[in-house]
Amino acid sequence: MNYFKKIFRFAKPYKKYAALNIFFNIFYALFSALSFVSLIPMLDVLFGEEKEKIINKPVYTGILEIGKFVKQYMGYYIQSFSEEHGEQYTLTIVIALIISMFLLKNMCNYWAMYFITFLRNGVLKDIRNAMYKKVVELPLAYFSEKRKGDTMARISSDVLEIQHSFLSILELIVREPLTIIFTIIVMLTISTKLTLFVFIFIPTSGYLISIIGKSLKKRSDRAQKEQGYFLSIIEETLGGLKVIKGFNSEPYFNKKFQTSTDRFYHYSNKILNRQNLASPASEFLGIVVITILLWYGGHMVLVEETLDPSQFIVYMGLAYNILTPAKAISKASYSVKKGNAAAERVIEVLEQENPIKDMPKALDKNYFEQSIAIENINFGYEEENVLHNFSLNVPKGQTVALVGQSGSGKSTIANLLTRFYDVQEGSIKIDGINIKDYKLHALRSMMGLVTQDSILFNDSIRNNVALGKEDATDEEIIDALKIANAYEFVKDLPNGIETNIGDSGNKLSGGQKQRLSIARAVLKNPPIMILDEATSALDTESERLVQQALENMMQNRTSVVIAHRLSTIQKANKIIVMQKGRIVEQGTHDELIAKDGVYKKLVAMQSFE
């Protein structure tokens, strides 16, 4: 029930729709009961039962006698109306009354459903938006431990399950209980004795129904986790099709996927079979109660003669009228159990603590004046440290390159500078201020990032380049493309900068994608540039063009360059040679070559590649 409350906080903006739904549901429940009561006059006219029975107009004697008063008054009124206008005319009026009651009942039902639609879909939209916003805000460390497919399943199918389960309760929470309450009130006015007899059996049948759904939440949770797993397989398959085909691994991935969908198949069957048992079980138990009513009520009509036949027929209709909402409520209780598992998975993401956030009174300073100082950093992704007592100073306007073998901690520096991860020991300062004291948006607005993997989106070249400056003009975008040596191929495309580049930019070559990434960083025009192995995945010709683009971009900027190909960083003001998270050498290219140490060995090794 805690998850139920947490999900329903999303309904607050739509409370007017909830109020209108409740309003029309109240009248639906009322007309639902009265529509059956309106049958009594018609049956009385047809059977002619009340003509000789009531001579004087009944007198109201108190709330305890309200049922008897209503019956006598209705009989007296029909008798008087029939004597004055004739039975055929009276029957016509009574039928018109019945049609009006059922029309009003169904109109109220439509309007109740109409308004609840806005609430249900609005809550669904807001939960999805909140989930997406949270996913975008969460640090990279969170996703290194989670499957992407599982996150996708939570945003898509789990949220949809909440709509089908929790939010469907909103339709039932007022309408069905009120229908039962109003129906029972009318049943009490017809026969208190018979209604009390019914109540002996209702708790028993309710208990039997509740037993069926106890394990539903646990099984539903398993199914939703399995769905997240096979969505992860789909995501990985689509991302790695070249490798899968190249290594003839289709059978392996088919088997892996089919094993997961088989598990999902069995879990889903168990859940649905348990859920489907709710409706027939509740209907059967309801019919058992109805047959007992027929026996006991028939005894009251035929033997005791304490109940009129017309009233007994309507009473049976009212008793059956309780079955439909009772079935809906029992079904809804299963939906809540199933939805509880989905809500738990959604709330887990929404309430996930984000350790990388703005400090109280964080600075909104987005300009760079003096230097970047990395002081005595120790950092590890898990237990073992990647960086050991690492210190570095980058003065404004200078280019500092980080080189070393894979796993030496170079890319970790880029992750810490941009606060994708937070420093565990030591500090990083910009202009003497700890980067944790900056607003995240302000800090990242000072930095441009070009990574080894050219991360582009299925959109136009214009929108990909303008990602950091959405209001950029065409001229600004073209200028950025020219600096990045990208305009030479963009201008030849069918739609120029409006050309769609496909999923992950797969319509372009590696060099073209990288130059678009550089153009994106150029257009943002940040004072600090971070280049994380920006040329390592390129051929020689592409590397030459990209390197030229990088040199154009780095003019008059402070740059931290993480390099694999050492030929690209010979002009750097300072080169830092790293080994296992420690600085082993530093200096200019010429100084390091003269030292005849680690750097020279790296250069020599690459010259033979």
Which features would summarize this protein structure in a list?
24 helices; ATP binding; single chain; about 600 residues; 6-stranded mixed sheet; elongated; Rossmann fold; alpha/beta; ABC transporter transmembrane region fold; 4-stranded antiparallel sheet; 10 strands; transmembrane helix; about 65% helix
Write the layout of secondary structure elements.
Layout: H1 2-8, H2 15-37, H3 39-47, H4 66-85, H5 87-137, H6 140-144, H7 148-164, H8 166-190, H9 192-198, H10 202-212, H11 216-239, H12 241-246, H13 250-276, H14 278-304, H15 309-350, E1 371-379, E2 387-395, E3 399-404, H16 410-417, E4 425-430, E5 433-434, H17 440-445, E6 447-451, H18 461-465, H19 474-483, H20 487-490, H21 510-524, E7 528-532, H22 540-554, E8 558-562, E9 574-579, E10 582-587, H23 589-595, H24 598-607
Parallel strand pairs: 3-8, 3-9, 6-7, 7-8
Antiparallel strand pairs: 1-2, 1-4, 4-5, 9-10
Keywords: ATP-binding, Membrane, Nucleotide-binding, Transmembrane, Transmembrane helix
Protein name: Antibiotic ABC transporter ATP-binding protein
Main location: membrane
